[in-house]
Design a protein that fits this description.
Amino acid/polyamine transporter I; about 475 residues
Length: about 475
Amino acid sequence: MTAMDVPADEPVVARTRATPATHWISWVALAMMTTSSVASLRAAPTMAVYGLACVFLYIVPAIVFLLPTSLVSAELASGYEGGIYNWVSRGISKPMGFLAVWCQFAMTIFYYPSLLGFVASTLAYVINPSLASSGVWTACVIVIVYWSGVWVSARGTAGVAGLASGGLIIGTLIPGVVLVLLGVVFLGQGNESAAPMDSAHLLPAWAGLSSLVLIVNNFLSYSGMEMNAVHVGSLKKPDKEFPKAMFLAMGMVLLIFILPALAISWIVPAEDLSLTAGVMQAFDAVFAEFGTQWLTPIFGIMLVAASLGGMLTWLAGPSKGLLLISREEGYLPPWLQRLNKHGVQQNILVAQGAVTTVIALGYALIPDVSSAYWIFSVITTQVYLIMYLLMFVAAVQLRRKDPDHPRGFRAPMLIGLCGVGFAASLAALLIGFVPPSQFGGGSNATYFLIVGGGALGLGLLVPFLFYRFRKPGWKQPETAEGVAS
């Protein structure tokens, strides 16, 4: 997942283009691959709160974040292998490269509680819908499912990645299409939309800065493009085909994001919408309307299967990239660098699991499950945005310092793209510290401390401490990757 399989200092420009032994892929195929890795129904309830305005709130981050990220990372991937660590190390410095790859790993620590919070609420509709608002139930599901995933990943189970491919169809496309079609039928039968659908509601109501906070979550929805960019070298004409692939992918992703969100807003009133269980609320309501409520648990299981497949494929990926860099440069203590007999970085997964378990308790301690879900989603986004800020700076530096370096793809107006992407990422990061208008009544100071402590503490303080107290003996680049140590 982190494209860290190649040593960071290896000059591999020639290998960024497909060789005769490599099969070319079409730009349509790349667009489909990108769509499958980005699109999800999980964020639909978050934007359904805005009704018709969700269209605007999805398109804006797609233009100012998704497009710059896609094109800039494509240039970096076509000129330098080694992923985000190598890009930032070459463009800025090795310590900043470590910070970038750390943020790519650390964001998953808060990503899993938010993802599994969705799983818990979805499972509740299969077992007992009243459990969807129970923090204790949510915390228990997070802990049990996460540690089960660690056990599976630590055994080096082959074929786990295939779960994600099937998950796109089983847990995203089929439920999404069904939800939208039934929503259209629901309106066609004369039922009134729960959210106004007139032109006066195309833009979100302005109630101060806090009214725009939910847009921050959309930046995480579009993240991960830097990983898909590694396939740019498999296109026959990357300079022409990659932009077409990205625009097609953007269109498909927007449809998958926007249409289900609109369908939910038609069926479930915003004031009754749960940010974790909103998808199942919509399915339950629309199936009840058509007398097929027995389908609700079936679709719940489909959504859970897709989420679990995605979790397993992400579980070992970012930590693997962190492991390889830490062995090469000595950024982590030897205990965290050890591999089990299956060649899996089990100790990193266990340490990550311990932190995830503590975070899961937040669902039990925070009365409102939706508030906990939102807080963890914001922290996830902010930690990841630190990595993107570094990536945009590195791209400009590499174009300035090494303009003649061979690149299979050159992003048009790179400096402008990086400027827009950097400004949008920084704005989203700062806005994340403002409590959203939908969660009034709580303490703004408490919200700021939780989000700031989580994002800045995990994203900046922890890697600084690792780097500050590292020892020469922590380097072990000669250790074979597949041998337990």
